[in-house]
Amino acid sequence: MKRIIVTRYGPPEVLRLEEAETPAPGEGEVLVRVARAGINFADLLARMGLYPGVPKPPFVPGHEVAGTVAALGPAVAGLAVGDRVVAGRSFGGYASHTVAPRATVTRLPDSVSFDAAAALPVNYLTAWLAVMHPGALQPGETLLIHGAAGGVGVAATQLAKICGAARIFGTASPGKHDWLREQGVEPVPRDDFRAAIREATDGRGVDLVLDPVGGDHLLQGYRCLASGGRIVTYGISAMAPGRRRSRLAQLREWWRTPRFNPLWMMGANRAVIGVHLGRYRDAERLQQAQTELFGWLESGEIAPRIDSVFPGAEAAKAHQHIHDRQNIGKVLLDFA
Fold first, then answer.
1. For 70, which of 12, 13, 33, 133 could close a Cys bridge (C-beta 3.0–4.6 Å)?
2. Whole-model pTM over 0.90
3. Domain boundaries, the chain
4. Contact at 8 Å (CB) between 114 and 36?
5. What is the CATH number of domain 123-279?
6. Which long-range contacts (CB under 8 A, 24 or more apart) does 84-88 make?
7. What is the pLDDT of residues 56-84, one digit of tens each?
8. What H or E segment, with its residue span, contains residue 115?
9. Which CATH number is associated with domain 2-120+304-334?
10. Which of 231, 228, 229 is nearest to 220 (CA)?
11. Phi and psi (nearest 5°) for 67?
């Protein structure tokens, strides 16, 4: 098998292609022949040593794959060799073969491509938690999505429309604003979004803010909330402003991360919600989310936007593409 390993924490160039022995699935496990592996910003943070729980190098990054069942371990039911599947992993997705627990493997409908399937697990489940539950966006409400042209941002926009959002605001690089408008998103400046939201809503604010940035950015998002509003924090990309790990940036953003006082929140009638998909323990809720997402995918109500597919051997280029903020939607690796 072929796999991409992180040789040491650092810039994209630390990613290296290597040959390895194909693993055998253990009890309750499935060996997947990977066709597509999804790339998430969490992978970039892991490569730099900034992601919570990241293994020490060398390790294989990647949290989501789509492909076919190559082998089944003992005590695995409901699947057969050759089935088309999508699977979630803690790490290990950037490879031609990967072993996943049966509970994380789902058979794909024939109508769902490997590209769409590999774009679904992390981005759309994160967006579902942020928008649907516990984000609880209601019909007629408004929201602000930071990083609206990224994988989670695109997913959140589509789910907000399903919820009946009245207005969707979004931040992104200026070159992506026209694309946002085509999606029904009202662009606001990344550097002065609070003033733009205040003006656009006549001072009321928005009902829901989705923030993957963290630091002071999170506090400014909180201050954009209307009475009864919620802000969902699901990342801290501010700690990784460049290609390399910066202790100074880490310390600065950690220092600037707000500590929310419950008395403030009570007085303002605002809520702060944290979402970490990898540590979400309500399996029944995630199953509900997955069922709804696949239903909407088949009906056409959601459609992952694939920005680009890089050969597996070019994982470093794919990471740099995301660092450079070139992507609109999902970036994938091809291991077919």
1. 33
2. yes
3. 2-120+304-334, 123-279
4. yes
5. 3.40.50.720
6. 84/108, 84/110, 84/114, 85/30, 85/32, 86/117, 86/118, 86/120, 86/121, 87/30, 87/32, 88/63, 88/64, 88/121, 88/122
7. 999 999 999 999 999 999 999 999 999 99
8. helix 114-118
9. 3.90.180.10
10. 231
11. 180, -145
